[in-house]
């Protein structure tokens, strides 16, 4: 099976053939995947080199000219390094585009902290009007990318990961999907993107409702509220900074007695390279750790 990044390159290349309004902007990263597309559309596949601020600036300029820009590089270089350009060239200018990242929170541990972006979604939360997709499978990545590219002039962030679930689920570009139902009053666990398999393994045999989120912004407070019922214990399991969505969940449950546990990447930096699996375990996001943390919070052992 191909990876999410490979699916992104093949899908975006086809979309360039289908939609004359689409343009892809790269900063060296991923350029090989668009070599043939660049030959067919040299005016709509732009590689600015290792200049991430320019990457976003060019994308914003293309949007002002009426095109639908798709920007791609590692998350740390797409959101964190050129954040001022994201804020001004898209938000302040009122333009739209599709930002597609790779690398996630720790997909390439050997790259060190410069290539990790656990705070990318939290950072985008400081800006208005961004839709955020976090697919958990290459098939979902393709559907969400197509949805993003066809979304008029909206501002969309698609967070790709080397991690993934064993199978895809139907995704529509909005809302959460219930994949496991507990009894009334059971805790609700929201699994985001590539962490669904780990959450399902961690909650096996537990009385819990599991919601799957491949689109996290806008936050589907209505689905959380419906699953929670009159009182709520909610656990959010996110592949980025722990607690990123707890405020949104708390707002959705504002008039319902509730407790919320936000699980995700810890704030403390891991200064050893290791492997992705070791990073998952160190952040408490492997199935065994998740089960321990969820049962300790809810007081309900399986």
List the keywords.
302 residues; alpha/beta; Rossmann fold; 12 helices
Describe this structure as you would to a colleague.
This protein has helices at residues 4-18, 35-40, 52-64, 75-80, 83-92, 120-124, 138-149, 196-202, 221-228, 246-252, 276-282, 287-298, and strands spanning 22-26, 45-47, 68-74, 97-102, 130-133, 155-159, 177-180, 188-192, 209-213, 215-217, 232-241, 258-265. Helix 3 (52-64) runs parallel beside helix 5, helix 8 packs across helix 12 and helix 9 packs across helix 10. The protein is built from twelve helices and twelve strands. The chain folds into two domains: 4-159, Rossmann fold; 177-298, 3-Layer(aba) Sandwich (Rossmann fold), CATH 3.40.50.920. With 302 residues, the protein is α/β, with parallel strands linked by helices. It has a seven-stranded mixed β-sheet with strand order 2-1-3-4-6-5-10, with helices on both faces. Strands 7-9-8-11-12 form a five-stranded mixed β-sheet, with helices on both faces.
**Binned strand content:** 15-25%
CATH superfamily of the largest domain: Thiamin diphosphate (ThDP)-binding fold, Pyr/PP domains
CATH C-level class of the largest domain is Alpha Beta
Tertiary shape: globular
Widest sheet: strand order? 2-1-3-4-6-5-10
Topology:
Blueprint: H1 4-18, E1 22-26, H2 35-40, E2 45-47, H3 52-64, E3 68-74, H4 75-80, H5 83-92, E4 97-102, H6 120-124, E5 130-133, H7 138-149, E6 155-159, E7 177-180, E8 188-192, H8 196-202, E9 209-213, E10 215-217, H9 221-228, E11 232-241, H10 246-252, E12 258-265, H11 276-282, H12 287-298
Parallel strand pairs: 1-2, 1-3, 3-4, 4-6, 5-6, 8-9, 8-11, 11-12
Antiparallel strand pairs: 5-10, 7-9
Helix pairs in contact: 1-7, 3-5, 8-12, 9-10
């Amino acid at each position: 099976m191909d990876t999410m990044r490979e699916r992104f390159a093949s899908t975006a290349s086809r979309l360039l053939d289908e939609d004359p309004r689409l343009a892809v902007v790269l900063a060296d990263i991923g350029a090989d995947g668009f070599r043939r597309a660049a030959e067919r559309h040299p005016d709509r596949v732009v590689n600015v080199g290792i200049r991430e601020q320019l990457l976003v600036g060019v994308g914003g300029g293309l949007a002002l000219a009426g095109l639908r820009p798709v920007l791609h590089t590692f998350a740390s270089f797409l959101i964190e390094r050129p954040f001022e350009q994201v804020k001004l060239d898209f938000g302040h200018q009122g333009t739209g585009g599709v930002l597609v990242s790779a690398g996630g929170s720790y997909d390439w541990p050997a790259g060190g902290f410069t290539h990790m972006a656990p705070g990318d979604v939290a950072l985008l939360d400081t800006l208005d009007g961004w839709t955020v997709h976090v697919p958990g499978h290459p098939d979902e990545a393709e559907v969400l990318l197509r949805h993003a590219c066809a979304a008029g002039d909206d501002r969309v962030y698609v967070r790709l990961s080397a991690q993934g679930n064993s199978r895809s689920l139907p995704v529509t570009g909005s809302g959460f999907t219930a994949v496991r139902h507990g009894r009334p009053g059971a805790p609700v666990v929201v699994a985001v993107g590539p962490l669904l398999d780990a959450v399902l393994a961690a909650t096996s045999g537990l009385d819990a409702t599991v919601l799957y989120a491949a689109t996290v912004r806008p936050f589907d407070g209505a689905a959380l509220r419906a699953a929670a019922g009159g009182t709520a214990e909610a656990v959010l399991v996110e592949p980025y900074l722990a607690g990123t969505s707890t405020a949104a969940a708390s707002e959705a449950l504002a008039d319902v007695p509730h407790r919320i546990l936000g699980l995700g990447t810890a704030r403390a930096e891991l200064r050893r390279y290791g492997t992705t699996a070791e990073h998952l375990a160190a952040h408490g996001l492997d199935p065994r750790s998740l089960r321990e943390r969820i049962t300790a919070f809810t007081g309900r052992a399986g």
